[in-house]
Design brief:
By secondary structure, the protein is an alpha+beta fold. Helix content is 21%, strand content 26%. Strands 7, 8, 9, 10, 11, 12, 13, 14 and 15 form a 9-stranded mixed sheet that branches. A 4-stranded antiparallel sheet has the order 3-2-5-6. The mean pLDDT is 91.
Length: 238
């Protein structure tokens, strides 16, 4: 990758606005390869140089990957005239180029990935890859006794929609955990309804190898760690 200005790099890494990071640099808070650098225009190689702010190393990524704890009441869209969207939970300075990976219903909470990496999004959402999606739900009503067996065999819904085999687990607190390998419209709610109960609360807690960081309050987000990103990437490296 070509070298870039130090202030531009730190701004790209969301360390602050361009003006803010320039003040950090001039104050001696930024080091390049262990040596303080006070020139905001200094050129650095994002792939080779070690850049730190207040002693914390900043890792450059050409693309961005975020974990969002989606709250209820916002829709999974880039913009909407009537409803708040998940992208509006991000500062305006970060939104350009970002989109959600897949979707969660308006009243569904939990793990949503937001990125500008179209290839990874396609790989995660491709039906042929069978990426697991894990949900926890609160129910009204009583499930039929053989609900877990029906889920495991693959349900056919009332409208003829055929669902792949899924895992239904009864949790000690009365909730249920559902693991799917596809993402049909309102699928968890419709499968639960086919087994005699109604979903009153739904939260996605895992996508592939990445679990929701429970320290994130609804509406909060953070960057994925390198380990989490590695857990999402398919074996062929897409």
């Amino acid at each position: 990758m070509p070298k870039m200005r130090l202030d531009k790099l730190l701004s790209h890494l969301n360390c602050g606005s361009r003006k803010e990071v320039q003040s950090f640099i001039r104050a001696g808070r930024v080091a390049v390869n262990g040596t303080a650098e006070r020139d905001p225009a200094a050129k650095v190689d994002p792939d080779a140089d070690r850049v730190s702010l207040d002693g914390r190393e900043q890792t450059y990524r050409a693309q961005r990957y975020y974990m969002l704890n989606k709250p209820a009441g916002v829709i999974t869209a880039s913009r909407d005239e009537r409803h708040g969207t998940v992208l509006e939970l991000f500062p305006e300075s970060l939104r350009r180029g970002l989109f959600a990976v897949g979707r969660l219903d308006k009243d569904t909470e939990g793990l949503l990935l937001v990125t500008d990496d179209g290839a990874l999004s396609h790989a995660l959402m491709s039906p042929s890859r069978h990426v697991s999606k894990v949900y926890e739900a609160e129910l009204d009503g009583v499930l039929v006794p053989d609900a877990a067996e029906r889920f495991g065999a693959g349900l056919t819904l009332r409208d003829g929609t055929v669902c792949r085999p899924a895992l239904l687990e009864l949790l000690p607190d009365g909730r249920v955990r559902v693991t799917l390998h596809e993402g049909k419209y309102h699928q968890v709610k419709r499968m639960i309804a086919a087994c005699g109960a109604t979903v009153t609360f739904l939260k996605r807690v895992q996508l592939g190898g990445v679990r929701l960081d429970e320290s994130l309050a609804p509406g909060e987000f953070r960057e994925l760690t390198e380990e989490e990103l590695g857990a999402l990437r398919p074996p062929d490296g897409l």
